[in-house]
């Protein structure tokens, strides 16, 4: 069962039931692409099983990484499906594919999380970097800086940096565009005004 919508202090579920609530806490996780379910590959929890070289066991020439792969770590668990891991998995997989083609030894994927960052509100963030926890503007600024550094192409980085700089200097724009029908349903026009040409 899933949440279909939230309106006026009521949470609507997909089965039609409703729950009254004044506080909503939303969390999100990662999930493999639904396409993975149809592939004839070894899987666990919806993710493709791979070995330490990011190769799929029993499937010569097949490699997997990122959110769709269950990548083992050196401690007997699995690597988290985060961007910092996926970027490094991509480099390792590319090197191992080349090594397999050239008949060279492959290298296992080894990486430990550097930290975690999240923006939680306007100019506020939380961070855990190398085991040090902090929050507030500095955590938010660090999150944005790292995000900006990972964007491809200088043009994109400049555009985003300018947009973020303007956001720091000016108040939030609360302008909202809706179609006419949605606006009329939310705020019906009194009959006395309809004939006066105030609303069309």
Name its key features:
FAD/NAD(P)-binding domain, 18% strand, alpha+beta, 200 residues, disordered C terminus, three-stranded mixed β-sheet
How would you describe what is shown here?
It is a single chain. Helix content is 30%, strand content 18%. It contains 5 helices and 9 strands. The longest helix has 20 residues, at 83-102. It is globular and about 60 Å long. Mean pLDDT is 83; it is low at 189-200.
Give the SSE map.
Elements: E1 3-7, E2 10-13, E3 18-20, E4 43-44, E5 47-49, E6 69-70, H1 83-102, E7 115-121, E8 124-129, E9 132-136, H2 137-150, H3 154-169, H4 180-186, H5 191-194
Oligomer: single chain
Task: Supply the helix-strand structural class.
Answer: alpha+beta
The arrangement of helices and strands along the chain is EEEEEEHEEEHHHH
What percent strand? Answer: 15-25%
Largest sheet: 3 strands, antiparallel
Q: What is the overall pLDDT average? A: 83
- Write out the strand line-up for the largest beta sheet, numbering strands in chain order: 1-2-3
Rg on CA atoms, Å: 24 Å
Cα end-to-end separation: 41 Å
Unreliable stretches (pLDDT < 50, length at least 5) are: 189-200
How many individual helices?
A: 5
Concise summary:
The protein is of the alpha+beta class. Helices cover 30% and strands 18% of the residues.
